[in-house]
Automatic annotation (TrEMBL):
Transmembrane segments: 21-44, 50-71, 98-118, 124-148, 172-191, 197-215
Protein name in UniProt: DUF624 domain-containing protein
Keyword Membrane among record annotations: yes
Pfam families: DUF624
Keywords: Membrane, Transmembrane, Transmembrane helix
Keyword Acyltransferase: no
């Protein structure tokens, strides 16, 4: 004989809560990247708007580490106030998010500019793989540092950087996967901004966080 499930334990309510966490996190992600959101909606991707997009991407790292923090907290408390938790994450990790993301942004700009330049020069096209490798390692390092800082908020910069570099190089294939995920998330944002901001950020960031948590599960 079937029994009525308590309201809070109802499978549909759990699903609704899960979806709401993702949607609210995505809204918070969009608000944090409001300049990028506006730029992706109204500006064409061209060299004329390059500087504007570069500036708009500055807050990207803050939203990445903060969304990762929300997802990490959600694992411990399924009833957490999502937006409040996001604000707490911003307050705790905005500086680290900016610092860890800045090298990724700088390397991304360099790689994009150089690849576009080198594709026109036949004799230096062999340098393109080197820039791609540099991008992958930088992304792997940045994502690892965000993860370890969330898991070890009292950890020193040296300790966080050391273990992040170690795994970014040793587990290079995970760095490659994380770089691909980050690029895909960014592409979706530009191709379909409404979908890319309101649906996919938490999915992609959740996969980034999952990769790190599995890779470093013995180092939490």
């Amino acid at each position: 004989m079937l029994k009525n499930q308590p309201y809070d334990n109802n499978v549909y309510m759990k699903l609704i809560k899960f979806v709401s966490v993702f949607l609210i996190s995505n809204v918070a992600f969009t608000v944090t990247n409001i300049l990028l959101f506006i730029a992706s909606l109204f500006l064409a991707i061209s060299s004329a708007n390059f500087i504007i997009f570069a500036i708009a991407f500055i807050a990207y790292g803050v939203s990445l580490i903060t969304t990762m923090y929300v997802l990490d907290q959600y694992k411990e408390d399924r009833d957490l106030p999502v937006f409040k938790t996001y604000l707490i994450g911003v307050k705790k990790f905005w500086k680290q998010g900016f610092i860890y993301w800045l090298p990724v942004l700088v390397v991304s700009i360099i790689v994009c500019v150089d690849i576009l330049s080198f594709t026109k020069l036949e004799f230096v096209k062999w340098l393109i793989p080197i820039f791609v490798i540099m991008f992958v390692i930088t992304v792997g390092l940045g994502i690892n540092m965000m993860y370890f800082k969330i898991k070890n908020p009292q950890g020193t910069w040296k300790d966080i950087a050391t273990i992040s570099v170690f795994y970014a190089l040793k587990k290079w294939y995970v760095s490659l996967l994380n770089a691909v995920l980050l690029v895909l998330m960014t592409i979706v944002i530009f191709i379909k901004p409404q979908f890319g901001y309101l649906i996919t950020p938490s999915i992609f960031i959740g996969l980034l966080f999952l990769n790190c948590s599995q890779l470093h599960k013995n180092k939490k």
